[in-house]
Amino acid sequence: xxxxTREGSIVTITPGRDLVSSMVPxxxxxxxxxxxxxxxxxxxDLSGTAMMDSIGIxxxxxxxxxxxxxxxxxxxxxxxxxxVKLFKSMRLDQHLNLDS
Length: 100
What we know:
Helix 1 runs parallel beside helix 2 (54-69). The chain has helices at 24-35, 54-69, 81-89; strands at residues 3-7, 10-14, 41-45, 73-77, 97-99. The protein is globular. It has 100 residues and is α/β, with parallel strands linked by helices. The longest helix has 16 residues, at 54-69. 37% of the residues lie in helices and 23% in strands.
């Protein structure tokens, strides 16, 4: 279960575990519940996430697109150096808001 905090129109969700295919269904359910609240900013705190597979990356891209459609923004915070390198190698850093 992810930690979810709310401060005004900003919601922060901290999965606290790796974003891999085995845990993505539960995480998607949590994200969808948060997206239904239509926050202006959704912060995804990856400080407890060491690894991410293609399914996890897909969830982040889908969440980014959903937030953009609703006029909000997704901010990726606390990502490890390896995850930031992964985003950069896929050129996702040009689309995602990375906050180190």
